[in-house]
Amino acid sequence: MAITLEPDRIVINFLKNNISDVNTSRSGEWIYPDFPRAESLGDAQFPRIGVTLLSESSEAMGIYDNTQQETISIQIDVVTKKDLLFNVTTTDEALGTMSSSVNTTRLSYGTIPNTITNIKHGGVAFGTVTMVDTDADFGTPAVDEVEWSYSTGRLNFNAADIVSYDGEALTSTSVVALEGKKLCQYLARKIVLTFKNNWRTDETFKGLHNPKKLNNIPIPFDEEYGLFRQTLEYSIGGFNAGEGI
Fold first, then answer.
1. How much is the pTM?
2. Helix residue ranges, H only, 89-236
3. Is pLDDT of 218 > 70?
């Protein structure tokens, strides 16, 4: 399948289709081609994601075949601004399955929340959710109580609940406060997960295949503009880049 759009535009459309803008006060564009022009942007225009085409190389599929197998290098820059805080609510996040046969403290949040609205087993909320500072502070929760560690996001259950709810799905609704470097890391991880989980099934990625992460690099803080930045580099396969243009 030939690539009928520029590869960087395909990646932009793919990211827009799969990553929600944490800045809910605006609507419209926030993922752009090329690096964000930070010096001309106001606070309300952050965070930003920039997608840049770095290079293309190719080789013929066969001696007498005009079809070119492409190797496309893409850079993605996540840029956030100091002291701009966004609260992101995740509803019914899948945490895993309650099991009486394994150590349930391995269950944890992907992104450690600041506050937890609920933790549910099979769609039914536990009565009490208690925060502790570290895993070392875990105690013996009462029946219908869950402890969670602020340092690791791990969970601790009552032994009787583990047996009673064995095999039930665990979900949670929580809020995470994101700012600066933490927001950069969060969005960069969302990009990584989007490529890993969605490239095969999302129609906006058609024409490209097999994204491979080459780098995920945090950039030193830019004191002049008060910016945090994280740069990802991907190698992506394709066929006959840009033929539809």
1. 0.83
2. 159-164, 180-198
3. yes
The SS3 call for residue 98 is coil
| Residues ≥6 apart with Cβ < 8 Å to 31 | 12, 15, 16, 19, 48, 49, 50, 51
How much of the chain is helix, strand and coil, in % rounded to 5?
A: 20, 45, 35
In angstroms, the CA 50 to CA 78 distance is: 7
Cα separation, 111 vs 225, in Å, equals 27
Q: What is the pLDDT of residues 56-87, one digit of tens each?
A: 887 777 677 667 788 999 999 999 999 999 99
Q: What pLDDT score does 45 carry?
A: 85
Task: Sketch out the chain's domains with CATH numbers.
Answer: 7-85+178-239 (3.30.70.1700), 99-167 (no CATH)
If we measure between CA atoms, which residue out of 138, 137, 142 comes closest to residue 103? 138
